[in-house]
From TrEMBL:
InterPro entries: Prok_STING
Transmembrane segments: 20-38, 50-69
Residues annotated as domain Prokaryotic STING: 76-206
Pfam families given in the database record: prok_STING
Family designation: In the C-terminal section; belongs to the bacterial STING family.
Taxonomic source organism: Marinoscillum luteum
Keywords: Antiviral defense, Membrane, Nucleotide-binding, Transmembrane, Transmembrane helix
Protein name (Swiss-Prot/TrEMBL): STING domain-containing protein
Length: 231
């Protein structure tokens, strides 16, 4: 994991050099392939052996390049997930555990980032209330983190859960606009939606990994549009 993060860091700082290196290896491999079949003899040079070695190197480089490209593209989601867990979820749950017995916290997983804007949040709140739940806006004040507004959802007295819309995901919108604007021959709206979904998936995958690593899975649950609450 540390090696991957190190390599991704190198790619982010030198993406142009890495891309040029990738294409250079491919070009040299093609040259070796042509020399293998053309009636040209080069002293102390075995084109068959060179092609075999370079082809293996090119294939390995190609796989590594794709991994680095994917990791670099989704790195903003990973950084947001880390900040969300470290700066909010963990301090909040730690405080709740001290204040009450077996607290449960649900995080809403949207299909698109647009669901995290105010008018769509209101629709989701109405859908929750339609299921017979009572919603209250409260302020959590963890001892080791800043205060934050969350929602308290209650079905009946003593049966409750805390709920949060991860608004931090909205900060991905400028990144999505930039990534799609830098591409050509793409349908902007469809590509933005597709990239947005991938970034959301990466965010929640990393969030769940961090929650499990911190042994908080018993207290933190992910909730989708079905709005099922494990209380």
């Amino acid at each position: 994991m540390k090696l991957k993060q190190y390599l991704v860091g190198i790619y982010n700082r030198n993406s142009r050099v890495v891309k040029i290196g990738h294409y250079a290896v491919i070009a040299i491999t093609i040259v070796a392939f042509l020399l293998w079949f053309l009636p040209i003899e080069v002293k102390y040079f075995d084109p068959e052996a060179a092609f075999t070695i370079l082809f293996a190197l090119s294939a390995s480089y190609g796989v590594l390049f794709k991994i680095l490209l994917d990791e670099a593209e989704f790195s903003p989601s990973l950084a947001l997930a880390f900040g969300y867990v470290e700066n909010f979820l963990e301090p909040a749950i730690t405080q709740l555990i001290q204040d009450e017995e077996n607290p449960i916290f649900h995080i809403y997983k949207p299909d698109s980032i647009q669901e995290l804007f105010e008018k769509n949040i209101e629709r989701t709140r109405k859908a929750i209330e339609a299921k017979g739940f009572k919603l209250s806006d409260i302020v959590l004040e963890p001892r080791y983190s800043r205060a934050r507004d969350v929602i308290l959802i209650e079905k009946e007295e003593g049966n409750q859960t805390y709920f949060d819309f991860p608004g931090t995901l909205k900060s991905l919108l400028p990144y999505i606009d930039y990534k799609i604007a830098s591409r050509s021959n793409e349908s902007d709206i469809e590509e933005k939606e597709r990239l947005g979904k991938k970034l959301i998936e990466k965010f929640f995958k990393k969030t769940e990994e961090l929650i499990a690593k911190k042994e908080l899975s018993a207290h933190i649950k992910i909730c989708d549009k079905q709005l099922y609450f494990d209380m």
